[in-house]
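Please check our next protein.
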Amino acid sequence: MPRWSKARYDQVVSGTLGGIAERFGWNPTWFRVIYVVLTVLTGVIPGVLLYFFLALTMK
C-alpha cells in the first residue's frame, strides 16, 4: 500500500489536505471547504487535532 504524502504544489498550510485530495482524485479546494465546515460543526478541536496529527505523520 502506498504511503500517504503531502501535496508538493497544491499547498495552503502544509499540503496535508491537498495530498489527501490528490490521493482520492478530488478537487482540493472543495475538500478544504468540506473539511473546514466539518471542523466548525464538530467544535473545532477535533478537526484541528486531526489536521496536526496528519501533518506530522504524512511524508
About this structure: The chain has one domain: 16-57. The mean pLDDT is 85. The radius of gyration is 11 Å. The CA atoms of residues 16 and 51 lie 8 Å apart.
